[in-house]
Amino acid sequence: MGTNVSLKDKFQAYVDAENKVEPKDWMPEKYRRTLIRQISQHAHSEIIGMQPEANWITRAPSLRAKLILLAKVQDEAGHGLYLYSAAETLGEPREKMIADLQSGKAKYSSIFNYPTPSWADMGTIGWLVDGAAIQNQVMLTRTSYGPYARAMVKICKEESFHQRQGYEIVMKLAQGTPEQRSMAQESLNRWWWPSLMMFGPSDDNSPNSEQSMQWKIKRKSNDTLRQEFIDKTVPQAEYLGLTIPDDNLKWNSERGHYDFGEIDWREFYEVIKGNGPCNKERIAHHKKST
Amino acid sequence: MSESNWKLWEVFLRSKNGLSHKHVGSLHAADSEMAIKNARDVYTRRSEGISIWVVPSEEITASAPDEKDPLFTPSDDKVYRHPTFYDIPDDVEHM
Amino acid sequence: MAKGWLNSVKRGFTKEEALKEYLYFLADDSLILGQQLSKWCSNGPVLEQDIAIINTALDHIGRARLLFQEIARLEGKGTTEDSLVYFRDHLHFKNALLVEQPNGHWGDTITRSFLMDTFNFYLYDSLRTCEVNSIRTIAEKAIKEISYQAQWSAEWIVRLGDGTEESHTKIQESIDNLWMWSGELFENHPVFEILNEELPSFTSIKDLWLKKVGQVLKMGMLIMPSPELWMQTGGRFGIHSSQLGFILGEMQSLARSYPNATW
Questions:
Q1: Which of A206, B5, B66, C21 has the most beta carbons within 10 angstroms of its beta carbon?
Q2: pLDDT band at A3, cuts 50/70/90?
Q3: Measured between alpha carbons, how far is B26 from B55 in angstroms, rounded to an integer?
Q4: Chain A CB within 8 Å of residue B50 CB
């Protein structure tokens, strides 16, 4: 028992000194479980996240747009694979992770439980959803578990085009015909709040966060990441002449940040629980393909 | 062709001549040809490699970190292996 | 000439029309097969296969773009690759009927790709030495990806044929079902005679194709149906199977809803 405690302390000191943990190294069982949960959840998000976009590949309005979207969704499959591969180094077979996804035991990012009825959503997802994901992923390139950090470096490198292609789609719409313009605004209206929800519950309500921060799996709090995202995105919307659907959004010069309105946490938790518009559809689609 | 009987393979890429193959990750495949093709599709979508090695993960024997003394003991006892161990006067150049 | 299903199609072409027609054969084959393969995205039975098949879809659509750009140049009058893809009606699509056949299961898709990739391999190989500069350049680039595709789909045929009893039965069924669409690939067409100085007739690669397909099927312990069986025809004349209407309906829907928009 005594050795066990000291191993944990040593582990903490090792991680505190910004060292990376590698697959065969000793690690607390809870660290291992947390990583498997987080990495597989991340992988599942990439895979389920293919669906709302793959949905438009056959209808993309130009060959150029079709190629870009196809390449982008393929990248997501690749990223899912890098991540499954990282989780497998912890001794968890991919098959098991996929079984957990299909049984509903494992989660994925809730944002993908919303539908994509409009082509503009291809732009908005790239711009906001990938934008929010990047915020999180850049932080994870410095995560303490080596294989996860390396996968994230590769993913971040490849993802850099994703947000730009999304923004380009929205820009073309915003600068296009009046119909295209309203298509862009309508899509932004729907995706803005769910994008903010992507960072997870506020810090007071995020039970796993503290331990993850301590182990340097996670390196910034949910609220910090959310605020960074908002501060970055508002000027991008202004540039397009689009309106962010939040009456309370206002620059606060004292804080040096934007103040913003209240997120509907009830919707957030209901969608997580399985009551979003597409939860069932996403899992059914995944089951059908395998 | 279900994935369940597909082996796990480790993938190594040589990014250009003059460099060694470097481990990039793993994937699942039914046989070695498929592993090479999958590796090409998964790990070289942006021309990251000019040569691929695939090895079944189960064929790799890894050194186990010492159970008694996990990770934390730096292997610095052979300090004489490092150039800084030796005192050479500054006047002696190119050493 | 005896009359049947294709009695009223256009068979007379000027030289200029013939060249465009030939390009439409190539471009539409690539486009429709690419469009079909892209439907596998997020539907692959295994992640690795999903990624692999999207790569082939990307290659096909990329090649289609180059070919349509060339057609657009010849057509002039503001024609673009996208106006050709999104605003042409089914009667003007000249792809082989094989590529518009549904994806079906993995074995069906593999078989369709295998028959087509093998055809493309010999066709583009001979196009590398043709007398039309623009096509030669495209073929030079395309042959690399086509060689890979042909090898990839052939390996899958062997893997499934020589795999489990179930996979063997299923892939043999796919081959038997799709076989009647394969003869059209090598059918003679009036444009080949008009262009015979500059471009190879598709009929010229039939023997190579039969030999290769036979070898691969044999390696997979599979039976090659007779090339003498009755074959379907019409695609090269704009007379299609029912499938094409759905493919175009889906592909063209957004672009046609906003004809004045640029994307």
A1: C21
A2: low
A3: 9
A4: no
Contact B8 A158 (CB under 8 A): no
Place of tokens 């390696």: C219
Which residue carries 């196809």 as its tokens? A70
The band of C251, judged by pLDDT with boundaries at 50, 70 and 90, is very high
Which token pair is A136? 């999180």
Residue of A nearest to C105 (CA): A289
User: Which amino acid type is present at position A72?
Assistant: K
Asked if A77's CB is within 8 angstroms of C47's CB, the reply is yes
* B51 DSSP β-pair partners: B14
The model's pLDDT over A173-210, given as tens digits with 9 standing for 90+, comes to 999 999 999 999 999 999 999 999 999 999 888 777 88
Q: Spell out the residues 6+ positions from residue A66 whose beta carbon is closer than 8 angstroms to its own.
A: A57, A60, C38, C61
Q: Would residue A15 be called left, alpha or beta, if left means φ above 0 and alpha means ψ between -120 and 50 degrees? A: alpha
CB spacing of C48 vs B29 below 8 angstroms: yes
C155 and B CB contact within 8 Å = yes
User: A176: left (phi > 0), else alpha (psi -120 to 50), else beta?
Assistant: beta
Is the pLDDT assigned to residue C47 strictly greater than 80? Answer: yes
CA distance A86 to B26: 8
Counting other chains too, the contacts that C81-85 makes at CB distance below 8 Å and 24 or more residues apart are C81/A63, C82/A61, C82/A62, C82/A63, C82/C255, C84/C27, C85/A63, C85/C31, C85/C251, C85/C252
Neighbours of C83 (CB within 10 A): 16
8-state DSSP, C87? S
**Can you tell me the mean pLDDT for A212-226?**
89
The answer, yes or no, to whether residue B76 has pLDDT greater than 60, is: no
Q: What is the pLDDT of residues A139-181, one digit of tens each?
A: 899 999 999 999 999 999 888 889 999 999 999 999 999 999 9
Contact C55 B41 (CB under 8 A): yes
Span C53-61, average pLDDT: 96
Would you identify the CATH topology of the domain C15-257? Ferritin (1.20.1260)
Residues of A at the C interface, defined by Cβ within 8 angstroms: 47, 50-51, 54, 57-67, 70-71, 73-74, 77-78, 80-81, 84, 119, 169, 172, 176-177, 179-180, 285, 288-290
Distance, C-alpha B33 to centroid of its chain: 21
Nearest CA distance, C243 vs chain A (angstrom): 15
Query: Which ranges constitute the DSSP H helices of chain C?
Result: 15-38, 47-75, 81-86, 106-127, 133-161, 165-178, 190-194, 206-219, 243-257
- The complex's ipTM? 0.96
